[in-house]
C-alpha cells in the first residue's frame, strides 16, 4: 500500500496543476498554506443551507432527528469560513474566490469557464463539451454520486418542494448571519417556499462577502 501511495504522490507532484476537493476542511486551517504558497488558489463554494439539509435527509433517515443541532454547527462553520476570508490580508484574500453553488448550476458553462480563469488553467473545447454533456443530459442519472443532469438548476432547487416548512424556518433562524453575508432570503410563507418563480436569493448584494472578494466580474 505504501508503495502505491508513493507512486500517486510522485505522479501528482509531476503535474503542473493539482486540484483537491474538500468538504470539511475549514478556511482557518489553511491560512498558513495560503500565506506560504503564492500559487495556491481556493474556490470557496457555498450552498443554501436548506438545500444541504434536504439532501442529507434524503440519504439519511436518522438525520432528521438531529437536524437542528447539526445545522447549528454547519452554519457556524460556514460563517467562520466567511469571516476567516474577510480577515485575510488583501494580497492573500484575492486568491480566494467565493461562489454560490446556485450560480454555477444556473449558468454552468460560463461559470465553469470563469472558475478556470480564476485558477489560471486553460479552458479548452474538450472541457467545454464535457461540461455541456454533464449538464444537458437526456435524463438525470439518479445514482447517489452522479453528476450528470438534464437540468442542473431544477435539480439544485428541488429541495424547495421537499423540505418541511418547520425545518425551513428553523434553518432560516439558525443560519440568519450566513444569509446576510451571501444573500440568501427567508421564505416568508410555505406558498413562497414552494414557488420556484420566486427567488430566495438577493442578487444585488452590494458590499457583500461575494462582491468584496471577487477580482473578476461574474458572467451574466
User: Which word captures the global form?
Assistant: globular
Give the proportion of residues in helices: 40-55%
Major sheet characteristics: 2 strands, parallel
Briefly note the CATH topology name: Rossmann fold
Number of strands: 2
Strand % is under 5%
Oligomer: single chain
With strands numbered from the N-terminus, the spatial order across the biggest sheet is: 1-2
**Overall SS class:** mainly alpha
CATH A-level architecture: 3-Layer(aba) Sandwich
End-to-end C-alpha gap: 48 Å
Provide a descriptive summary of the structure in words:
This protein is mainly alpha-helical and 220 residues long. It is built from 13 helices and 2 strands. Strands 1-2 form a two-stranded parallel ribbon. Helix 4 (67-86) packs parallel to helix 10 and helix 7 (108-118) packs across helix 8 (125-135).
Short description:
This protein is mainly alpha-helical. The chain is built from 13 helices and two strands. The protein has a single domain, classed as P-loop containing nucleotide triphosphate hydrolases (Rossmann fold, 3-Layer(aba) Sandwich).
Amino acid at each position: 500500500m505504501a508503495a502505491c501511495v508513493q507512486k500517486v504522490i510522485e505522479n501528482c507532484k509531476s503535474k503542473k496543476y493539482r486540484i483537491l476537493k474538500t468538504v470539511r476542511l475549514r478556511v482557518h486551517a489553511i491560512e498558513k498554506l495560503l500565506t506560504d504558497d503564492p500559487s495556491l488558489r481556493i474556490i470557496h463554494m457555498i450552498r443554501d443551507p436548506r438545500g444541504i439539509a434536504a439532501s442529507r435527509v434524503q440519504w439519511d433517515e436518522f438525520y432528521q432527528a438531529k437536524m437542528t443541532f447539526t445545522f447549528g454547527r454547519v452554519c457556524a462553520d460556514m460563517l467562520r469560513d466567511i469571516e476567516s476570508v474577510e480577515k485575510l490580508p488583501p494580497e492573500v484574500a484575492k486568491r480566494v474566490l467565493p461562489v454560490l453553488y446556485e450560480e454555477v448550476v444556473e449558468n454552468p458553462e460560463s461559470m465553469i469557464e470563469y472558475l478556470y480563469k480564476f485558477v489560471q488553467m486553460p479552458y479548452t473545447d474538450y472541457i467545454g463539451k464535457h461540461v455541456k454533456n454533464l449538464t444537458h443530459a437526456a435524463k438525470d442519472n439518479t445514482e447517489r454520486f452522479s453528476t450528470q443532469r438534464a437540468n442542473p438548476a431544477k435539480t439544485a432547487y428541488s429541495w424547495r418542494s421537499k423540505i418541511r416548512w418547520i425545518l425551513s424556518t428553523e434553518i432560516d433562524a439558525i443560519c440568519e448571519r450566513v444569509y446576510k453575508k451571501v444573500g440568501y432570503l427567508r421564505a416568508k410563507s410555505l406558498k413562497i417556499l414552494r414557488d420556484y418563480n420566486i427567488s430566495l436569493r438577493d442578487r444585488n448584494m452590494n458590499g457583500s462577502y461575494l462582491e468584496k472578494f471577487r477580482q473578476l466580474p461574474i458572467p451574466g
